[in-house]
Design a protein that fits this description.
With about 625 residues, the chain is α/β, with parallel strands linked by helices. About 45% of the residues lie in helices and about 20% in strands. A hairpin with a 2-residue loop joins strand 10 and strand 11 (about 300-310). The longest helix has about 45 residues, at about 530-575. It is globular.
């Protein structure tokens, strides 16, 4: 359906591709990988006909239609979420597409009350979800997806992953998510050293085939070099002797006629660096005693006892709404408990890395200044090295922080945290917006980290590398596993490594007493009272969520009426006939003055209600 033949492309004096050829066939699901700056986005622009190759050609079947999801910042018109998802279609098509669009929007975690919201009121991440829904509704012949999982929570990601397994068209996707590529891809295209090489199978298959190919190339290269050296040695030894001169020349001609095997090109070496280590904390790092917390009438924790000890590397797992993010925020002090105590241990310096950390950055600083303006005063070379590992290359370090994207600000905040690390590090989805090389750099940095680490992640590769113990959370109940992620998978008999991150584990085997964290409620087999309490908590959360959703809908309807009346008043006051009637003009002016504070009050109430609803969903 699409063919790239001998394509070359140079950008800013650097050759991105040279003589690249490959095909995309109907129904294929292909992962596009390569280091940052290798040309993945440029290749997309060539396929979309947004740019042209310097040499070669891109050909495709007549009538082939594309769907493209950029990494971020897709534009949005003045339409509702549902209209955006259906693609502004005509009335006849709308009735056909709306049921499908609603199913897809729900799969991507939109609520029914969101369907009629103006898409321009959404945050950037939710706008990208709505655009993704639009593409899935349209079902183009070829989907081009640039990091499509960046803006998805774990349950939405799992839904999206399952949906794509039966997608009828072809897919070419850029992704740093190994599990996502493993679950979906039947081929991998790697951009490296100005070439595009195709590998069969998923990401793990690619790693094996690439290693075998490089080993074969290295062996062939070394064998040829030995043969060349042997021929050259013979020629050098006998070329001065009359009886052997002609044979020596023959040896040299044999060398010239050889079709040379190129030396395998080495992958870019992983950046090695040492950053300042934190001071040593006491053995007991942080303790929660009898802690209670909830959102409105929705309880999350009640009588929670929990303790973190020095050197732990703990990952929090469990279904959405179970309380993972809430526990991390309580540990960080970002939320205040309604009862009980939170106690930091001796000499504990705490650092909390949330998914969005723009509030800790000075917008007037350059990227480099921000990385160096820390109590530890890191040198410029160390700061530049670490910034390079997290995708800030060359002149990027001189950009003002204020012009960075959300993902860039998140990466910069991560760099600052590594350059001046605390001895207790709490991290929420630290690999979001990182490519594979940067994730490996983060893993390498944290392997050397001497402090205590507690984190949430949906990146199974990162979890396997970092976690030494697992804490499963469900309905406010904590169940610890005193082993790494594979140990947790084995104990729970999980169906897959990714799905186990959100599993409720109601049928898991009881744990031995040595695996229990003393004082943790719900550790071990659940009693009838615990199950009843969990059910009551779920019902209370569901009731509170519905009440909040109804409140949001009511406020949105009220705001719509107020805004409509405001526009009517403005139109009337601009009418010459109204201006001529002094009494009417004064009455309308007074009504307009009174409506403004009403709109402001309702807007504040809407913001508070939606924030509470989002917080409840993130529990």
């Amino acid at each position: 359906m699409l063919s790239v033949h001998q394509v070359s492309k140079t950008y800013a004096g650097r050759t991105l591709f040279s003589g690249v050829s490959f095909h995309i066939n109907r129904g294929e699901k292909i992962g596009l990988i390569g280091p940052n700056g290798a040309g993945k986005s440029t290749l997309f622009s060539l396929l979309l006909r947004e740019s042209t190759p310097d040499d070669g050609q891109v050909t495709m079947e007549k009538g082939l239609n594309f769907g493209f999801l950029p990494q971020e910042s897709a534009p949005v018109d003045d339409v509702t979420v549902l209209q955006l998802a259906t693609g502004h279609v005509d009335e006849h098509s709308r009735w056909e597409l709306e049921p499908k669009a609603k199913r897809i929007l729900k799969g991507l975690a939109f609520r029914e009350s969101d369907f009629e919201r103006n898409a321009r009121t959404l945050s950037g991440g939710w706008v990208m979800r709505a655009h993704l829904a639009r593409l899935l509704v349209q079902e183009p012949d070829l989907l081009l997806l640039d990091e499509p999982t960046n803006h998805l929570d774990l349950e939405s990601l799992l839904w999206f992953q399952e949906y794509l397994t039966t997608y009828p068209g072809a897919i070419l996707m850029i992704s740093h998510d190994r599990e996502f590529l493993n679950a979906l891809c039947d081929a991998i295209l790697e951009i490296a050293h100005s070439k595009v090489i195709r590998y069969r199978g998923n990401y793990d298959d690619y790693l094996r085939e690439k290693a075998a190919r490089e080993e074969q190339m290295q062996s062939a290269f070394e064998n040829q070099q030995r043969e060349i050296a042997k021929l050259q040695q013979w020629a050098d030894r006998f070329k001065a002797k009359a009886n052997f001169a002609s044979r020596a020349q023959d040896k040299l001609k044999m060398i010239d006629r050889m079709e040379r095997v190129d030396a395998p090109q080495q992958a870019a070496k992983q950046v090695k660096f040492r950053f300042p280590q934190p001071p040593r904390s006491g053995q007991r790092v942080l303790t929660l005693k009898g802690l209670a917390f909830g959102y409105g009438q929705t309880p999350v924790y009640d009588g929670l006892d929990f303790e973190i000890e020095r050197g732990q590397r703990l990952v929090l797992v469990g279904p959405n709404g179970a309380g993972k993010s809430t526990l991390l925020k309580l540990l960080a002090g970002a939320l205040t408990p309604q009862a009980g105590k939170r106690e930091l241990g001796h000499n504990v310096k705490l650092g909390y890395f949330a998914q969005y950390r723009g509030d800790v950055l000075n917008m007037r600083h350059t990227v480099l200044q921000s990385a160096m303006d820390l109590p530890s005063r890191p040198g410029e070379q160390l700061a530049r090295t670490l910034l390079g590992s997290f995708l800030f290359h060359g002149d990027d370090v001189f950009k003002p922080v204020g012009v960075l994207s959300g993902g860039e600000k998140s990466r910069l905040a991560l760099v600052r945290l590594l350059l001046d690390p605390p001895n207790l590090l709490l991290m929420d989805e630290p690999t979001t917006h990182l490519d594979m090389g940067s994730i490996d750099a983060l893993i390498q940095a944290l392997e050397d980290y001497e402090g205590t680490l507690v984190f949430i992640s949906h990146d199974v590769h990162f979890i396997r590398a970092m976690a030494r113990s697992v804490l499963h959370i469900a309905a406010g109940v904590l169940t610890p596993y005193a082993g790494d992620y594979q140990y947790y998978l084995d104990k729970t008999k999980a169906s897959s490594a990714r799905e186990a991150l959100t599993a409720s584990l109601t049928n898991h085997q009881p744990l031995s007493s040595s695996e229990m964290n003393k004082g943790s409620p719900g550790a071990g087999g659940k009693t009838k009272e615990q199950k009843r309490a969990e059910a009551e908590a779920r019902n209370a959360r569901s009731k509170a969520r519905k009440e909040l959703e109804q409140k949001v809908t009511h406020i949105e309807q009220s705001l719509a009426l107020l805004e409509k009346r405001k526009l009517e008043l403005v139109d009337l006051l601009q009418d010459g006939a109204t201006y001529a009637d002094a009494v009417k003009f004064r009455a309308l002016s007074e009504e307009l003055e009174q409506i403004e504070p009403k709109i402001a009050k309702e807007t504040t109430a809407w913001e508070q209600a939606t924030e509470a609803l989002e917080a409840m969903a993130a529990v």
